[in-house]
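Subject: THUM3 protein

B.,
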Amino acid sequence: SWVGVGGRPPALPGQPGMAEAEAAGDAGLGPDPGPAAAQEDEGLAAVIGATVPTGFEQTAAEEVQEKLGSASRISRDRGKIYFEVPARSLPQVHRLRSVDNLFVVVQEFKDYQFKENKEDALKDLEDLVKKLPWTDPLKVWELNNSLKKKKTKRKKHNLQSPASRGKLSDGGVEGGADQSNTNDQEDCAQNPVAVEPTGGQDTESPQGVTSRNGVEEEEEDNEQSDVKGEAQAGSESGTKAGDSQTGEAEAKVLRFRVTCNRAGDKHSFTSNEAARDFGGAVQEHFQWKADMTNFDVEVLLNIHNNEVVVGIALTEESLHRRNITHFGPTTLRSTLAYGMLRLCDPQPTDIIVDPMCGTGAIPIEGAAEWPYCYHIAGDNNPQAVKRAANNINSLLRKNESKDSSTALGVPLDVVQWDICNLPLRTGSVDIVVTDMPFGKRIGSKRKNWDLYPACLMEMGRICTPGTGRAVLLTQDKKCFAKALSRVGHIWRRAQTVWVNVGGLHAAVYLLRRTSESAEHTRAFW
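Prediction pasted inline below.
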């Protein structure tokens, strides 16, 4: 095993000077730290865990290397990466475009030996709590919290000006996204019932558990583990005493919950049982109060076969919500949109088209991250075009509220059109990136057999021969393969990335345009 944060040995509760007050102090609830403490925090390092869209782990690792200068380790548990950064780099970490959720690692065990007997295995997890090095991770959590408070103050200040109304979350900790339609999002909320169980995976829905933000569970894009077991620590020890204290003292008692995500077929316990017993030990150790919905600290217990990672959540809701305020039935997560765009390597002055844009997740992400390209979004559905336009307006308002003196527009237009007859000049487009209809919530599998080849032909017409690229996401892989075989003279498959989209196994295809001219393609068709 290795220590997740800093280099200090674990502080055990029985050691001299380790009292309950220290736990509160670690969380920043004690007196103001002096200059020495501030200097110590300056050298604080953290191992950050990040959940990313399954299949795009390498993309996320490359972004971390580019923007933070840190090497990442891709977890065996798909959809997660780990990297070390100075704690002062937390604001930059929250601005990463490829990560969904962030947590600070308390400790990782690469080959944890679980006892075969359920009671013994759970007792070991309980005993683990008092041996873990909590001190520095809690400092990182408190630092992260202070950033969140600053952001909230900034938001309240900005809301006084009309230009900032409806402003989105700045890819950070406080979410500004409209969550009223989350139940309809194919790519944003994963349905535990729809996930096909694999060996030993916890597929039961947690009972008596309220999901994060009262809307949905924190999502994981792991193919083997899409379900979270959560349990509130059964004991309420230490809270009755707090009830009799003054309001000021009561405010010092942190509220927490434990979320367990378990995958594997060799465990004698469920995720609910692990979360319940581990949570009880956390409560006893810190004298925190268990609260499933209105919590300050979320402790994460990730178990993947024999790999165990204990962490503390740094995001209240997934960062993929950063761009979208008006959701549609199949809104694509912006983190997945970023991975798709990055796959086609946009260059300055490239013209990038999403011919089936839906709510505009891909072009909005593109305009935010690649502002030196020109992005065109289109859809045949007027309602989708309206939603995309609203989301673009939200992005403009967000830019204005940052600094109205230097606010610029975004290089992005949205148009209503027919995908099979685009109003674009032949060979005028560099890149096509789109989320094609899966045939489930939009369209049908039967319609896809006609739609896919027609789409590929029209995309081939507008793309520049020899240099054009297309990155296409679909779950209807059989239909896509057949359509691609019919247009093999204009498109060559260069790469396939297997992804998990809302519990569905899908694929992202990178296609390269052949040098054959458009005249020949039309004659062929």
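The longest strand covers residues 491-501.

T.
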